[in-house]
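Form 7-S
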Amino acid sequence: MPRDYTPRVELICEVCGTSVMLPPSIIAQGRRCCSAKCMGISKRRPAAFTCVGCGKTVVTSPSLAVKQRYCSEACQREHKKPRIICEVCGKERRVTPTQLAEGARFCSWWCARKVLNKPRPIVVCEQCGKQCAVPPSRVKQGMRFCSHSCRTIWTLTHDDHARPTSIEVILYKLLDELELVYIPQYAIPAAGTVADAYLPDLNMVLYADGDYWHGLPKTSARDKRQNKKLAELGYRVHRMSEKDLRADPFQAFRVAFE
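Output:
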């Protein structure tokens, strides 16, 4: 059975003017020259574009003429983010063209409120319900909590973070075997922490600490601050390392009563 061939299309080389017949697919890919030699010559030929910032005409290579929009990095910084002078403190600030079109006049909300006298919006903390006045920028950023502690507590007790880790599972299994009453993931906002387990009958909070994370200096210092605050609130605190829990959970728990 005879094959059907797509008729070829004529192309006039933009370098030498030679007429060649090529498949339509090659033309659709942007072919402009008759050969690789002419293609190399076309790429070396200078091309020009107009800077969108200052309007200056710049001569460069064809590839850069297609992509480049500004004549220099300095021109791009100056026109992509123009400067304004704050009406209150006189500080210079770069803004986007959109902010400039919206009438940006101040360097920050703190300067703006001195002139506009606008009340700060109120955000209600999702964890403790406390109301706090914050700058409008924080509201646009999606502020939902009054403090870092409340955000941490909510994160650890909701969504995927509420699922226990492998060493927490070991701790809960031990407490079930000992038939102790406990509350998993017990939030203590006053200390800015979430205990892995709380034993109300003993007024004791338990932590199953991973060896790597809780071995870091910053985390270790935070754990010490939390232990001190929990002791001031009247709690008994016992932290069990991952190594001890995996080796002998009962022995790791019994140390708290020695």
